[in-house]
Amino acid sequence: xxxxxxxxxxxxxxxxxxxxxxxKEVIRNSDAIVLEIxxxxxxxxxxxxxxxxxxxxxxxxxxxxGDAAFPVDEEKIQERLELFRAFGVSFIIEDVEDYGQYGLxxxxxxxxxxTADETWEILLGNYSSMDSQRYVSVGDGxxxxxxxxxxxxxxxxxxxxxxxxxxxxxxxxxxxxxxxxESYSITYEEDSGNTYCEEDVYFAERAGSLLPLDTSRVDAxxxxxxxxxxxxxxTYNATAExxxxxxxxxxxxxxxxxxxxxxxxxxxxxxxxVLQISRDPEEQKAAEEASDQEEGTAEEEITAYAxxxxxxxxxxxTANEYKALMDASYDALRHLEVLSADFSDVTQLDISLEGAxxxxxxxxxxxxxxxxxxxxxxxxxxxxxxxESLKAESFTDERPTQKKEIGLTVHLxxxxxxxxxxxxxxxxxxxxxxxxxxxPVSLVARADVVDLIEAVNEIVLN
Length: 462
Hints:
Pfam families: DUF4340
Domain DUF4340: 62-251
Region (Disordered): 278-300
Structural class: alpha+beta
Protein name: DUF4340 domain-containing protein
């Protein structure tokens, strides 16, 4: 009996080996295209990954089955469909009996597509780290290894499929308007007679006058808009109540930018971009009350929101983005320099210092201009650099009440502005008050004024 049992066991084992060999899977290299689905003909697309199931269908546009109001990014849908227009593989595994060894009995992701005539179900299994490829089933009985892993596209959640609002790159801005905490307009004007600085092209409209702005500061502000990260959406279909809760029913600041760009046919296209910014109203109210009671903190928490035009999407923006966008005052965009003229346009400097008057004259033109004092040519570099270093620490309209430290009349090679008068008055131990053409402008560092006086003395006393 013992011998008989051993014989039966040996026969069973031999039968198992033979059966295994009879059903051994066939694996071979392949460059076959196993799916060719016309993406334009696809009418439905869905996938299950992890705990999330997403489904979309096409009418005139692609719609999310769970909410027709969701703004679907059609390019992202198309990007996923294009994967199966010519879906190629690198290995074919035939005669498969155990799909579990490839992770296809419980697929990590299931993708379904359909046209008017046909439906496909694509299963994604394990990832072969040895081959750096994914096991895939397309329902034909085979298992495939693919290099272009579909999971790279279908691990997406709903937030990855939203058609986000975009901020443009402003090729040429023709106008900017601020409403809310700031209320003024900026116009674009080349070769303007409203400035003595050739680079000035932006002008603030204030009290009937066009006041020059610093081109680099305006461009930097526009770049803050272009570089704004609009991805963290709070809602994609804001109600009136939600807008009010975010403070966007009456935005703190609305920025309207008129700009032009060239299309592919080189036609000039005019566009207008509108951005609305607000801080959480309750938080803003608490901050104002704390400020009134002088209880503000250095690390103030800011919850802020932005909305593009009449879009229904509301985005959360960072505290730094909020502060940068809200910093849109005239003072934030005007020239910091007391004298913004190009020094190569200076034809003469008349200087008053400690009751004495001095004149520095020039010959030549542009960058080839040379300067002299009392008929003797001089090196103007130190005086030029100290004059150009006079920049606003802050702006003010306060009238001077103390001693004038130094005065300069700068003569320019400019028909509209033949001269600029600069007077620097003592203010306190840290700052001096700069008055330009009789109008108080800014507080500048007293140390820089001292450097200017020393540069003048170096010329007139030697």
